[in-house]
Amino acid sequence: MTMGFEMPGDVQDNLMQVVQKMFGAGYISPEETGKIPSVKKKKSGIVYGPLKDFPVEADLILMWLTPQQAMLYSEAAGICRWTENLPAAVFGRPSCAALPIALENRQSTFSLGCAGMRIFTEISDDRILAVLPGGKAQDFVKGLEVVGNANASMQTFYEEHKAKFVE
Questions:
Q1: Which among 9, 42, 97, 109 could disulfide-bond with 89, CB atoms 3.0 to 4.6 Å apart, if both were Cys?
Q2: Would 42 be classed as within a structural domain?
Q3: Domain for residue 149, yes or no?
Q4: What is the 3-state secondary structure (H, E, C) of the chain?
Q5: Domain assignment of residue 51, yes or no
């Protein structure tokens, strides 16, 4: 539904049963359904795979990160700079809504990971989903190197500084 595919009737019926269950459980409200982001541009398919083996230029790059990795990601992607007016986007449910947001806005997003994402992907509870627009990959890699060095330097400083208070 969020990926913007036209669905055959039986698939749409199945989806509506899932949505009705979500309403009944109080997971989402009927008012939310029309506002859940979806891909606007029609797609004929989705190609998934390891980025190093990818046969086409990626529209989006998905990463499952620990909180520590997510902090480095947000720094390298430039979404936590205090000088920018771009707020970091973090979503809950549905996790798949982070993809159309990143695609449409060409902005990195995070999802905390809804129940469906965790069940169907079998991603552990200690990971969150990061979505990087594919066109930003090279800048991200460069930023990650800078961020990694800066954080390593600060970690050493913090450990030495903390030792002064422990004595």
A1: 109
A2: no
A3: yes
A4: CCCCCCCCHHHHHHHHHHHHHHHHHCCCCCCCHHHCCCCCCCCCCCCCCCHHHCCCCCCEEEEEECHHHHHHHHHHCCCCCCCCCCCCEEECCCHHHHHHHHHHHCCCEEECCCHHHHHHHCCCCCCEEEEEEHHHHHHHHHHHHHHHHHHHHHHHHHHHHHHHHHC
A5: no
